[in-house]
Amino acid sequence: MGDYLTSALNAIPGRTSDQQTHEDILSDPFVAPYVAALATAKTEAIIPGAQEIKTALQTQIESAWYGETDPQTALNTAADQANGILAEKNG
Fold first, then answer.
1. 61: containing domain
2. Is residue 45 part of a domain?
3. Rounded CA separation 90/48 (Å)
4. pLDDT of residue 68
5. CB-based burial of residue 50 (10 Å sphere; 0-12 exposed, 13-18 middle, 19+ buried)?
6. With 38 labelled, which of 6, 19, 53, 71 sits at a CA distance of 20 to 30 A?
7. What pTM did the predictor assign?
């Protein structure tokens, strides 16, 4: 699997043994900092609605970037959407 991840997908394998086997590829100056950060990386907590909130936030950020809305309105809209998602998921 490490061969497939590093060659076909240019991805960092999750298994330490695969990382060691492919150290030559993973020591590339672009990839090495990401591999080094794995030592202190933490998994993201599973929170009901989190992905929907991230999507809503990203949509509003892009809206502000492209000048479709002003930044404050985008933040307010994202907050309202997040609060609605949390209320829905947490009953």
1. 50-89
2. no
3. 8
4. 97
5. middle
6. 53
7. 0.59
Instruction: Flag whether pLDDT at 77 surpasses 60.
Output: yes
Specify the DSSP element, H or E, that contains 66. none
* The token pair that represents 27 in the structure block: 């020591």
Q: How many domains does the chain have?
A: 2
Q: Residue 7 is encoded by which pair of tokens?
A: 């060659």
For 16-75, the pLDDT digits (tens) are 887 788 788 778 888 888 888 888 988 888 889 999 999 999 999 999 999 999 999 999
Question: Alpha-carbon distance 80 to 63, whole Å?
Answer: 15
Q: Looking at residue 9, what is its pLDDT?
A: 63
Tell me the torsion sign for CA atoms 41, 46, 51, 53: negative
Q: Would you give the DSSP letter of residue 36?
A: H
**Whole-angstrom Cα distance, residue 86 to residue 52?**
10
